[in-house]
Specification:
Layout lengths: L1 H28 L6 H18 L4 H27 L5 H24 L14 E4 L2 E4 H23 L1 H11 L1 H6 L4 H27 L7 H14 L4 H21 L5 H15 L14
């Protein structure tokens, strides 16, 4: 039971980092960013390159992942947002554009780094703690602690900072936000950099388990989209709650039934929730996009 609980909290923390970035981008920009998985993979390689050529210390590796993830956010802003914002069918065009960018990015990573898996150093050490007779590794406790701190700071920042106010204004009334002086392009850059950095942190925290490869972002993207849809696109709080539910489903299913049933149970959960609440646990109304 302790094993399942630890797995639940660990998975929930990682899911939340990815899903919050997706929800934040949708909430502020009406962009469903399918390049998030590629961001995850690039950040993993950024952290690996940092550990190989600069320093293998925990702060350096984490910073390498964060910078690489934020850099991909800037790339998406330049390639997708600046060219498509304000044009007819922006939401659909941006969806296709981020998907195309993701496919291109994955192939570039494959060409540059090859298909071999890359391992990151154990940034939280290799210690093991005994909790209720169950061994808990330091990489899981470190990942949980780090994700919890970052998500807490993000939630507080969104509630109290000018960026958070701008995101809420854009999600409620984009035209009104422009009238009161909110620069949509500047806010878009900040949102994409933050969401990219979150994906980067998730990539670093998951790398000891999944390693780094050109396609390592595919599963986190799927899981992040599931969590974001379950929580309600545009709702950061809903994404966090959904991450806990998805983590619990994965953790307890994997321990009690078998890992091969995890995805099946997760899709069953989202199907049930969306039948009851089509907009997710706390989704914003689609009328805010009109």
């Amino acid at each position: 039971m302790v094993t399942a609980l630890v797995s639940t909290i660990n998975l929930a923390a990682i899911y939340a980092l990815v899903a919050v970035g997706i929800s934040l981008t949708w909430s502020g920009l009406s962009v469903l960013n399918l390049g998030h998985g590629m961001t995850f993979a690039v950040a993993g390689y950024g952290a690996w390159w940092t550990s190989e050529h600069i320093s293998a210390s925990a702060p350096a590796v984490v910073l390498g992942g964060l910078v690489a993830g934020a850099a991909v956010g800037v790339l998406i802003w330049v390639v997708v947002f600046l060219f498509l914002d304000g044009r007819p069918g922006f939401a659909f065009r941006s969806l296709i554009a981020t998907l195309a960018l993701s496919l291109i990015g994955t192939n570039v990573l494959l060409e540059v780094f090859g298909a071999n898996l890359r391992a990151l150093p154990q940034i939280f050490g290799d210690n093991t703690f005994i909790v209720a007779g169950t061994a808990v590794t330091s990489d899981k406790t470190g990942a949980i602690t780090c994700a919890a701190i970052v998500l807490s700071l993000l939630v507080v920042s969104l509630k109290r900072s000018r960026l958070g106010l701008a995101v809420r204004a854009l999600s409620q009334n984009p035209d009104g936000a422009g009238l009161v002086g909110i620069n949509r392009s500047t806010v878009a850059l900040a949102i994409l950099m933050v969401s990219g950095a979150l994906a980067g942190l998730a990539g670093v925290l998951l790398a000891p388990t999944f390693f780094v490869s050109p396609t390592s972002g595919l599963l986190p993207l799927i899981e992040g989209l599931i969590v974001a849809l379950l929580g309600g696109l545009g709702s950061v709080g809903g994404a966090v709650v959904a991450a806990v539910l998805m983590g619990a489903t994965a953790g307890f299913t994997g321990v009690c039934v078998g890992g091969q049933y995890v995805l099946m149970m997760q899709f069953a959960l989202i199907a049930i929730v969306l039948l009851v609440r089509p907009r997710g646990l706390a989704g914003i109304l689609e009328t805010t996009r009109a």
